[in-house]
Amino acid sequence: MIEPSDGPALAGLLSRDREAYARWLPERPAEFYTADGQAPVIEALLASHGKGLAWPGVVVCDGTVIGQVSISSILRGPFQKGFLGYWVSSLHQGLGHTSRAVGLALRIADDELKLHRLEAHTQLSNLASQAILRKHGFRSWGIAHDHFYADGAWHDEVFWERNPTGGPAS
Q1: Hey, what CATH topology would domain 4-118 get?
Q2: 69-110, pLDDT tens digit by residue?
Q3: CA-closest candidate to residue 43, choices 26, 58, 56
Q4: How confident is the model over 4-62, as pLDDT tens digits?
Q5: b/e 152-166 (16+ beta carbons within 10 angstroms → b)
Q6: 3-class state of residue 12 by DSSP
Q7: Is 48:54 a contact under the CB 8 Å cutoff?
Q8: What element of type H or E holds 2?
Q9: Residue 38 burial by CB count (10 A; 0-12/13-18/19+): exposed, middle or buried?
Q10: What pTM did the predictor assign?
Q11: 81-88/64-75 β-pairing
Q12: Cα–Cα distance, 45 to 36 (Å, whole number)
């Protein structure tokens, strides 16, 4: 679970990878990339968790924060679903950390949050993220054109879904 003390580490990672991830992440004010800027972000995530609307976590390797994983936009009632999001520092990619974090988030979604369905989005060109989602039982179910604005342009995104039965909600 994310903690207020994770702010400086997250700010450092986000700041270092700002240009490398410009295509994948929305534009943010300069303050976002500082420890002071991360404090209200983390507070909001923890407040959402307290209301049952999110589960915010960090990705850790050898005791060091290297990224973030979250389940957000949790809907209860007839939906019982949430939205999976994640990122790992460019220095730690390709080492299995992202897949491990997604696997842990899925266990939390199933065992702790009791969610029936998880959704995720990837840009068409993000083949590594798509491979991770497939590995963990997600299926693509459509493409949203001009869905996400980042790095000065609109990008198409693939929509992904995962539920325990692999089919329509029961």
Answers
A1: Aminopeptidase (3.40.630)
A2: 999 999 999 999 999 999 999 999 899 999 999 999 999 999
A3: 56
A4: 999 999 999 999 999 888 888 888 999 999 999 999 999 999 999 999 999 999 999 99
A5: eeebebbbbbbbeee
A6: helix
A7: yes
A8: none
A9: buried
A10: 0.91
A11: antiparallel
A12: 15
